[in-house]
Amino acid sequence: MKQTTEEKKALSAARSARWRVSPKGKAKLAEYNAQCRASPKGKAKRAAYERTPKRKARVAAYRSTLEGRAYTLFTGAAKRAKKRGGVCTLTREHHMAGIEAGCPLSGIPSVLITHYSKAKVHPFAPSTDRIDNSNRDYTLGNSRWPCNYLNTAIGEHGLDFFLAMAAKVFEHLKIDPKDPKHKALITAMAESR
User: Fold this and answer.
1) Could you tell me the residue ranges of all domains in the chain?
2) Mind listing the pLDDT tens digit for each residue in 92-115?
3) 65-190 in CATH: which number?
4) Which of 6, 18, 66, 154 has the highest Cβ tally under 10 A?
5) pTM for the predicted model, two decimal places
6) How many Å apart are CA 146 and CA 21, to the nearest integer?
């Protein structure tokens, strides 16, 4: 008796499922996938997929959640530590707690939306910062989660230099730190989440 198309598909799927669960089959499948990703055609397909609006929207929506942002910061810290020869002992839970606490330097709550106006990253988005940059490890004692704007500002020269520069700017421009317009701007940006 001749097999129908549906029966052939079912038999093929069953064979494929058996093959994929065996250790030898898993190894072959991983090797095949690696070859596909390494080929120019595979790279082009992957790049085209990464650029699709649907995927971008899905990634942005995930990163706008606490879990998604914690995962993004966690993987970024682990990659940077590995690249620089350090270790990352932080977990996703550490990142979630840091994000929920808000910026430890300014007291501003973390904003989880990805974009702000035309900026690539919202200024109050959380980021992972090593307190001592000479130590390449991301550990709980050497990490904090300031807002992106402050982390960028203190990046290369440190917090002390930033504070000295901020004091100099306030003095030079005769800025009153208690002026309500500054507080209104910060509040408006923080509430744009």
Assistant:
1) 65-190
2) 999 999 999 999 999 999 988 765
3) 3.30.40
4) 154
5) 0.69
6) 44
